[in-house]
Amino acid sequence: MRHRLKDVAERAGVSVKTVSNVVNGYQHVRPATRARVEAALAELRYRPNLSARNLRKGRTGVIALAVPELDIPYFAELARHVVAAAADHGWTVLIDQTGGGRERERVAAAGIGDHLIDGLIFSPLSLTADDLTDLDGVPMVLLGERVDHGPADHVVIDNVTAAREVTAHLIGLGRHRIAAVGAQPTPEGAGARLRLAGYTAALTEAGIGYDERLVAATPAWRRADGAAALRHLLASGTRPDAVFCFSDTLALGALRALHEAGLRVPTDVAVAGFDDIEDGRFSVPTLTTVAPDKERIARLAVDLLAGRLGGDRDAPPRELTAPHRLTPRESTA
C-alpha cells in the first residue's frame, strides 16, 4: 500500500501542508514538529510521488547523458557515476550513443524529443560552439574538449598537464625514445591535440627532441587501433623504449602488439595509458595510467545541471576542472 501525505499528517497530528514542507526540505518547520513528521514518514515508509511532483513543476524527472560510444570503457564508467549522482536529485538518466555523428548530436543537443528530458550532459565530437549556440535546446553541461568556453557549462580535466606528467614519468625512468599513440589531426581530435601538446612539452623540458616518427595517429582510440599503431611503428624500424598511449584502450592494444613482437613490458618497452579504466588494473602487466576523477566529473556535471534547472539558467557559462592523478603500475615499474 502506498501512503499519501494525508496519511502521514494524520499519524503525526499535523497538517498536510506541514508534511509537505518537511518532505520538500523547507527550513521553517519547528524542530519538534519536524521530528514528529519524520518519525511518521519512517513508520509509514512514505515514498514521494516523483511523477506528480515533476508534473507540477513542468518537469519529467529525466536527464540525458549523450556520449559518442558506450562500448568505450571510460564512457561506461562515467555513466555509472552520472547515474549515481543524478539519483541524489531523484532523477532518472537516459543514456544516448551519438557515434560522434553530426546529425545524431544535433538531435541530442536539441533535447532528444519534445518534453522527454529536463537537461543534458553532453560529450560532443562533431558539433561546434556555434552549432550549440544556434540550437534552442534544453539546459546542457558539456564534457570533453571539442567545445570549450562555449555556450554552456563545461567540466574538463587538464589534459596538457596530465599528459606532461605521464611523459615526464617515463623520462624519469630513463626512457628517451617515447612514442605517442593516438594523435588525431581531425577537428574531432581536440583531446588528442591537448595530450600531444603535453607530451611535447615534457620532451622539451627534458631537452629531448621531438621526433615525428615516434608519433602514431589513429582513427579511433580502441584496442585494435593501439595494436595496429604499434605493429606499424615496429615494422617501420622505429623502436621506442616507451609508449604513451592517449587512452587505456589504446594501451591495452599496444600491450598485445608488443607481446606478439616478443618485447617485454616494461623491461624492453614501458607503456602508459590515460583514463584509468578497470581493465588496466587487471591486465598483465597492470597499466600505468592517468586517472581522471570520473566520480568528481559526474558530480560536477550533475550539480551544474541542477543549478540551471533550479533557477540560474541565465547565468554566464562556467568551466570547472576536475582533478586527476598519475597512477604508476607494473607496465612502467
TrEMBL record:
Residues 4-57 form the HTH lacI-type domain. The keyword Transcription regulation applies. Keywords: DNA-binding, Transcription, Transcription regulation. GO terms for molecular function: DNA binding. InterPro entries: HTH_LacI, LacI/GalR-like_sensor, Lambda_DNA-bd_dom_sf, Peripla_BP_I. It comes from the Bacteria. Gene3D superfamilies: 3.40.50.2300, lambda repressor-like DNA-binding domains (1.10.260.40). Residues 312-333 are annotated as: Disordered. SUPFAM superfamilies: lambda repressor-like DNA-binding domains (SSF47413), Periplasmic binding protein-like I (SSF53822). PANTHER family: HTH-TYPE TRANSCRIPTIONAL REGULATOR GALS, LACI-RELATED TRANSCRIPTIONAL REPRESSOR. This is LacI family DNA-binding transcriptional regulator.
